[in-house]
Amino acid sequence: MSWIGRSLPRYEDPSLLMGRGTYVADLARNTASVKFVRSPVAAGRIVGMELPDGELVFTAADLVDVKPIRPILHRPDYIAVDQPILARDRVMFCGQALAMVVADDQGLAEDLAEQVFADVEADDAIVNFADALADGAGAVHAHAPGNVLVEGKMRSAGLDDAFAIAAEIVSLELRSGRQSAMPLEGRGGVARYDAVSGRVTLYASVQMPHMLRTGIADTLGMPEADLRVIAPDVGGGFGQKMSLFPEYVALVWLARHLKRDLSWIEDRRENFLASAHSRDQAFSVKGAFSKDGILLGIDADLKSNVGAFSCYPVTCGVEPLMALAELPGPYKVKEYGARSRGVTTNTCMMAPYRGVARPMLTLTMERMMDVAAKRLRLDPVEIRRRNLIDTFPHRSPTGLVYDEGSYQEAMEVAVNTLDVPAFRERQAAARAAGRYLGIGFSVFSERTGYGTPAYAARGMGIVPGYEIVTCAMDPSGSVEVRIGSSPHGQGLKTALAQLIADELGIAPSKIKIISGDTDATPYGWGTFASRSMVIAGGASKLAAGKVAVRLRSIAATMMDAKPEDIELEDDLARVIGTNQSLPIPDVARAAYHQSHRFPDAGPGLQDQAIYDPAGTFSNACHACIVEVDIETGGVVIERFVVAEDAGILINPMIVDGQIHGGVAQGVANALYEELIYDETGNLLTASLADYLPPTIAEMPNIEIEHLVTLSDATITKAKGVGEGGTIGAPAAIINAICDALAPFGVEIFEIPATPQRIRDLIRASERNDHG
Amino acid sequence: MAEKISITLNINARDYAISVEPRRTLADAVRDDCGLTGTHLGCEHGVCGACTVIVDGKPVRSCLMFAVQADGRPIRTVEGLARGDVLHPLQKVFWENHGLQCGFCTPGFLMLAAGALEAKPDMTEAEIRDVLSSNLCRCTGYQNIIKAVSAAAVEMRTCQPSENC
Amino acid sequence: MKPASFDYYRAANRADAIRLLAEYGDDGKILAGGQSLVAAMNFRLARPNVLIDINDAADLDYLRVEDGTLRIGALTRHARFHDPAEPGPLGALLSKVVHHIAHYPIRQRGTFAGSLSHADPASEWCLVATTLGAEMHIASHDGERTCPAAQFFKGTFTTAIETQDLLAEIRLPVLGNGWRSGFHEFSRRAGDFALAMSLVVLKIEDGVITDARIGVGAVSDRALRLETLEAELIGKAPNEKLFAEIAAAAKAQITPSADIHATSAFRSDLIRTVVKRALMQAAA
């Protein structure tokens, strides 16, 4: 009986439920506290620093031997920039670390930090695209005078012709506000210094422990072996915890310098000011349509605000280059041209956040479909039917190859679930009564589980992608699996145990997954880009498969059978077609303690495997019904349907949980959350009183329908599912709002669609009607 | 720096004699002085609710109280929910219904729900939703949390005190 | 985000609180529920040198009707209003409004008097006090004085309370039979500060409005009572057209404040909506 496909309760949970989890702040007892002094202004020259005497206060002057963080893309259109660990001569954004202080506890450290004064000659801050790209604009980085740090371009030969013959050209200007991934646990590190070995153990709330070790060691010029990084329980990450941040470098430097145990636990204000932001994109896009609604070509100018620095290791190319490569999404458009720029500003660094470019490019394509449908008098569902990809493998105009999916089918499932004809009747009746209901759809692809080829194609200096997994069954028949991936709360260990259990014929409860410790796991890339189940899962399956081969070989010798006749199931090694069997622990013990009997297999039961797939595309359709209060601009989501195809579901309960959480962050993107800088680059939304994640009261019940397409793109036939919820939801919600407000002719192209923005559009339309 | 004050925090029916500055929040005292790190800090300004504990029978934000204010008062934290290794009904339903992912907000939700359900065992789903809108979760989209708490409400109403309610 | 250092004194009762205020009030602040104060202290936006904790002053924790007024002690917490504080229209009004104040755990600690002392322009209790014409009883070692709501609120976070004063009691007029209330608030999310809100109480006798109060909150530096519009309701039968006109007039009368959550134009639209909806609810 297979363990795959069962909604097994998670092995991670009991300790978390009992308050016995171990998050990084829980490890900070008996350490000195580090506090960073942060710049109050966005741009300027540091003229001087006034420091309290006789205290543990450090500035860039103390860090002369420490290299800056310099992420690399090997592309002619990329300009590398340095991020200093503490600001040296200039400050580049409000919240940048200028100095650090050490005291016995956090309160005292804050007292001390208040005594540090930086004399900064403020310059005009460059905050937004208009500032950065204006003629004669100042330069955020002196060696990048146009403020563009990366610029990708492509243009297919027939693009002009496509626009020349188009019956309808839809031009859109879309804007996404700035957001924070806002894990409930902020960043944080505890550095323990071992006086005997001189080695530092850094506990850190991160998604990429191995990469963090490499980055810190390179920056400090130390051997990696002198640093151990451990990611304990991580309180969510969503991308925000995958980059190398200066604070971690500083913490390890300090621990070595002071030979002390130290902790830095980020507070919420710091998390908003200085961790990493996301989105803040402006897409200017034209679509050429035939009179039948066939999308003939796309011409796009895509801008991503990347903030003051480039994130390590994925660089500030991550948003613009993904937008460039994936804009066409699930549509079979032939001609494509785009320019995609990463624009630097005096704002907090941007880093990946669940979805990366795709929430915005999905919003773009889905708004385009709805606007085109309206102009061409087609049903929004029908225009999608005519354009969605339906033959596989599909090669996009940007060269991406899509494996088998169910784009059309998923949309039909969503359409049927919401019973569109019945809704249209209800909508008409409601309008007559002065209530405005709308329905919206969003179809998208979610590229997941991609290995080194995809990252190499971007020209990344550090090419992530593979995973190495070691699997060992011990003499008692229990299994330890060591992974380079590093979960941040998604239940990966349970799902991997289910996958491995099927390979080895034992219960998942006997499988222990070891992760997040650079001393105990193979080099790996951590968790991001919906990769862990696909890639760590694939490598786990392969590694466990190799151990299974050894088990079968040994069992065959023990039972005088052929290895190919041995099956592993229910904790037994059984000779197929007989009632002859051995308990797997007996075979395991023999493998270690009677190895002389098995010259072919050799001693022990451990093996290693590497998996580095090209990638796979999950797909989904989100559809929702909303009601808009035209007087307040308030939106209530009445129903939300997700028809999702992520291939084989290893643990459906965990998959659904990923979708629920993803949709919540999509709802946040669509309606609620926005980080706002004023024109001087001061962040106005640095608390949870002003930055508004949805609560339970704002969230609809999410109805999920699964489709299962079996694709050979992954060896487990599982596709990634971590980001889809966030990618698809904003477009569905915005389309539904526009459908609700069709009587007013309101079209929304900016998210979050706050009540104020919606009300502004309605008011403008009312004025037009009356004037 | 103000002088430290000696106080006794009674947490989960055990006394912790500690000495704290007046500015020490209850959350910090529970975590750092008493070593009960199941109570988490997510915002320190009373919005996220990760630090919710029960004081005098009521769920409150422990980041918005000073430890000196809780001197001698009964405090309950997530560590006191289970009886040994036997999970409290709320813990059990959160587990069964996948009401947690990263687990960081979970202690706050558990104590919020425990306090509210003890005060009013027959809350309607709308009332439960209103109570649960007090805390933030970033992973689950809340759907399984409401499912779990609704299930716990039924269980806590029907099971006997001796069965760990 | 740890508060700056302070000295801490605990008042055993009302008299003790007044004594401590006389001694330390110039340097310090009362700590009641602390749900706004402690948050501001954690950000170090507030940094009192002294806190005088009144949470042990049991004689300040009361809610009773006496001589036609509901008397609310300085330590009476929001949650006390979850169930009606008195059987008439006032109790119903207060328990309707209290559910809009922050969230459940905040309501377990936060106090009615604390909200009024803090005087956040978006505070629901400040709107209630202004609309119903509450009377504040302020005590200090110099004696006691009363202050009507109209003179109590001076602006954002500013009131008639002096450094050595304790807002000891608030009195709200009990509403007799025939009074009904309507409250409507618009906020971004459940429990958020209002972007605009309105409280309306109407006395309707024989199908005619005989008395009225209209308050609007969260749109200026303090809650507003719209007395000229109240007068226009008197003697008229409640109907949607009348209410729409009153709401439009309310919008025209007020130039609302602006912040990152709402422009003045948006708040202006919201004023019309919340006033109309509060009126409709009161008459329903």
What does this structure look like?
The complex is a heterotrimer of chains A (771), B (165) and C (284). Chain A is 30% helix and 24% strand. In chain A, helix 5 crosses helix 6 (246-258). Chain A is globular, with a radius of gyration of 27 Å. With 771 residues, chain A is an alpha+beta fold. Chain A has 19 helices and 29 strands. Chain B is of the alpha+beta class and 165 residues long. Chain B has helices at 26-33, 89-96, 106-119, 125-132, 143-158, and strands at residues 5-11, 14-20, 52-55, 58-61, 74-76. Chain B has a five-stranded mixed β-sheet with strand order 2-1-5-3-4, sandwiched between helices. In chain B, a hairpin with a 2-residue loop joins strand 3 and strand 4 (58-61). In chain B, helix 2 (89-96) packs antiparallel against helix 5 (143-158). A five-stranded antiparallel β-sheet of chain C has the order 4-5-10-6-7. Chain C contains ten helices and 14 strands. In chain C, a hairpin with a 2-residue loop joins strand 4 (63-66) and strand 5 (69-73). With 284 residues, chain C is α+β, with helices and mostly antiparallel strands. The longest helix of chain C has 20 residues, at 264-283. Chains in contact: A-B, A-C, B-C. Chains A and B meet through helix 1, helix 2 and helix 17 of A and helix 1, helix 2, helix 3, helix 4 and helix 5 of B.
Cα shape of chain B: globular
Q: How large a portion of the residues of chain C is in β-strands, by DSSP E?
A: 25-35%
The percent range for helix content of chain B is 25-40%
What Rg of chain C do the Cα atoms give? 19 Å
List the keywords:
heterotrimer; B: 165 residues; alpha+beta; 5-stranded mixed beta sheet; 33% helix; 15% strand; C: 284 residues; 5-stranded antiparallel beta sheet
Summarize the structure.
The complex is a heterotrimer of chains A (771), B (165) and C (284). Helices cover 30% and strands 24% of the residues of chain A.
List the helices and strands and how they pair.
The complex is a heterotrimer of chains A (771), B (165) and C (284).
Chain A: H1 13-17, E1 32-38, E2 44-50, E3 57-59, E4 90-91, E5 97-103, H2 106-113, E6 117-122, H3 129-133, E7 148-155, H4 159-165, E8 168-179, E9 188-193, E10 200-204, H5 209-220, E11 227-230, H6 246-258, E12 262-265, H7 268-275, E13 278-289, E14 295-307, H8 318-326, E15 335-344, H9 358-375, H10 380-387, E16 394-395, E17 401-402, H11 407-418, H12 420-432, E18 436-448, H13 452-457, E19 467-473, E20 479-483, H14 492-504, E21 511-514, H15 532-559, E22 566-569, E23 572-575, E24 581-583, H16 584-593, E25 606-611, E26 616-628, E27 635-645, H17 652-672, E28 702-707, H18 724-740, E29 750-751, H19 755-770
Parallel strand pairs in A: 1-12, 8-29, 10-11, 14-15, 20-21, 27-28
Antiparallel strand pairs in A: 1-5, 2-4, 2-6, 3-5, 7-15, 8-13, 9-10, 9-12, 13-14, 16-17, 18-26, 19-20, 19-25, 22-23, 23-24, 26-27
Helix pairs in contact in A: 5-6, 9-10, 9-18, 14-15, 15-16, 17-18
Chain B: E1 5-11, E2 14-20, H1 26-33, E3 52-55, E4 58-61, E5 74-76, H2 89-96, H3 106-119, H4 125-132, H5 143-158
Parallel strand pairs in B: 1-5
Antiparallel strand pairs in B: 1-2, 3-4, 3-5
Chain C: E1 7-10, H1 14-24, E2 28-31, H2 37-42, E3 50-53, E4 63-66, E5 69-73, H3 89-98, H4 104-109, H5 112-118, H6 124-132, E6 135-140, E7 143-148, H7 149-152, E8 153-155, E9 158-159, E10 166-173, E11 179-187, E12 194-205, E13 208-217, E14 224-225, H8 227-233, H9 240-253, H10 264-283
Parallel strand pairs in C: 1-3, 2-3
Antiparallel strand pairs in C: 4-5, 5-10, 6-7, 6-10, 8-9, 11-12, 12-13, 13-14
Helix pairs in contact in C: 9-10
